[in-house]
Amino acid sequence: MDNTTADIAKAPLPTASTLRQRQNVLFQAWRFIALNLRFLTMITKGDH
Amino acid sequence: MARVVVLGAGISGHTAALHLKRRLKNAHEVVVVSPNSKWNWIPSNIWVGVGKMTTDQVTFALAPIYRRQGIEFHQALATELHPQGSPEEAKAYVSIRYTDSARVGQEARLTYDYLINATGPKLNFAATPGLGPDANTVSVCTPAHAVEASQHFHDVITKLRAGERQSLVVGVGHGTCTCEGAAFEYCFNVEHELRVAGVREFADVTYLTNEHELGDFGVGGMTFNQRGFETTSKLWTESLFRERDVHAITQAHVEKIEPGVIHYEQLDGSKSTLSFDFAMLLPPFRGVDMKAFDASGADITADVFAPNGFMKVDADYQTKPYEEWSAQDWPRTYESAVLPNVFGVGIAFAPPHQISRPRTSPNGTVIAPAPPRTGMPSGVMGKTVAMTISDRILRGAQTPARRASMATMGAACVASSGTGIRNGTAASMTMYPVVPDFATYPQTGRSAKDTFGEIGLAGHWIKYMLHVVFIYKAKARPLWFLIPE
């Protein structure tokens, strides 16, 4: 049974603050570094 | 002097060829056979498909790169594999048919000591009547397809600007498709561009997928740690759909497509139709049409390749129920199950089974996403096999194979939309390992530390960085080999 439409309607919406944070250049610059480090950790942990 | 022939110059084959040449230098021959004259960074085709990049930005000519590297290049299609030679040729060889304008249709034989099958997928539009650029939908699988998709998409925007309501459908065109992540990314690029064009309110955007639920992505879904809570990729993805007002239809097998109408069946057996003005539906994949023959000329294709055309390697292909699937089923060395010195990598190897739980409708229709094995895993497989072959050439044929299982390998998926420094956003996901290993990670099958999702501008920058870095690497620029796969 496909309940997707009902599930989407119940899904949490991001707050205005979260939406701002997602586009804030300074915060995202930090996330850019953090995400790259996490990617590198994940890559080196596995077969590569 | 040993000769290594690489069939295919996609992410896996091209990576293998460059690493082989780096290690073997000019003491041995590396030969690449590809029907395409250009290399394509496929992840960026998504941006071509909405008109934000040109084909020149996502492709480059292979011949000059191979000339500089000392790699022999044949623009040709591999048609037959003769691993024991034939009465006319004692050595193992592959038959090819040229596709370049100077030699189109001409045939030749290439003998080999080692062979890598990295031929990628055959885009099987024929599996669904009416699917594909030659019929009623568009695709972003190749640069040419993506350009056509962009033209259709901009026609839709023109109609929307004229006040004509339009229905756009993005997703997969068969119950056994893979690459749901790419369809998801294109869907949100389309949605983003509609907003930028100021016409979003007049457009209905629907994501049509064979996934059992949103966030499955053909890998059985993921569990993320977010701000101290475990979140499923289902809830995380549904939130994005709600925020962007994108409709979704899951558990769907597209049966046929007529002009403007998609006919689909869902897992409960119900059959429905969906009208569209624009539809980008990815095709299912199958292996390329290559045959194999023994020394006497007898057809051994069924021994070498699975029924779907992918090459059988060192995986456990025994049929067993989902509950008995194991990380150990997945191949580690990618050596052919029956042919010595032959390897199958990237999309060309036959996976032992899906990663997501396969399901069948009451009508007997299989609705089961095929396992994704593109991008990073493809590159790692290509490099691993190149290292195995170069080890064996340099240190002796008995040198053990290197290993890289998708059950001990991570992958990243960055679904980005928009362009420019400040105007983009992306859903970034990583998982480790790609194939869940419940023996090592009993709770979710994956490492909680290395499996995460995040939405924001940073992911968009990463996607653009990957575009630049991987094209740099594929062009074999200085120190290219330091860039991880």
List descriptors.
heterodimer, A: 48 residues, mainly alpha, 75% helix, 0% strand, B: 485 residues, alpha/beta, FAD/NAD(P)-binding domain, eight-stranded mixed beta sheet, four-stranded parallel beta sheet, 10 helices, 25% helix, globular
Whole-number average pLDDT of chain A? 91
Give the overall form of chain B.
globular
Most extensive interface, chain pair and sizes: A-B, 35 and 49 residues
Low-pLDDT runs of chain B: none
CATH topology of the domain at 3-123 and 288-395 in chain B: FAD/NAD(P)-binding domain
- Percentage of residues in DSSP E strands of chain B: 25-35%
Alpha carbon gap, first and last residue of chain A: 40 Å
Over the alpha carbons, how many angstroms does the gyration radius of chain A reach?
17 Å
CATH class of the domain at 3-123 and 288-395 in chain B: Alpha Beta
Oligomer: heterodimer
Task: Report low-confidence residues of chain A grouped into runs of 5 or more.
Answer: none
Summarize the structure.
The complex is a heterodimer of chains A (48) and B (485). Chain A has 48 residues and is mainly alpha-helical.
Written description of the protein model:
The complex is a heterodimer of chains A (48) and B (485). Chain A is built from three helices and no strands. Chain A is mostly helical. In chain A, 23% of the residues are buried. The mean pLDDT of chain A is 91. With 485 residues, chain B is an alpha/beta fold. Chain B has a domain at 3-123 and 288-395: 3-Layer(bba) Sandwich (FAD/NAD(P)-binding domain), CATH 3.50.50.60. Chain B is built from ten helices and 26 strands. Chain B has helices spanning 11-24, 45-48, 55-58, 62-69, 143-161, 180-196, 233-244, 301-304, 376-395, 457-474, and strands at 3-7, 29-34, 38-40, 59-61, 72-82, 93-98, 107-111, 114-117, 122-123, 166-172, 203-208, 223-226, 229-232, 247-249, 252-258, 261-266, 271-275, 278-282, 285-286, 291-292, 342-344, 359-360, 366-367, 411-417, 425-431, 452-456. In chain B, the strands form eight sheets. In chain B, strands 1, 2, 5, 6, 7, 8, 20 and 21 form an eight-stranded mixed beta sheet that branches. In chain B, a hairpin with a 4-residue loop joins strand 16 (261-266) and strand 17. In chain B, helix 1 packs parallel to helix 9 (376-395). Chain B is globular. Chain B starts with a strand and ends in an 11-residue tail after the last helix. Classes of the chains: A mainly alpha (48), B alpha/beta (485). At the A-B interface, helix 1, helix 2 and helix 3 of A face helix 7, strand 14, helix 9, strand 25 and strand 26 of B.
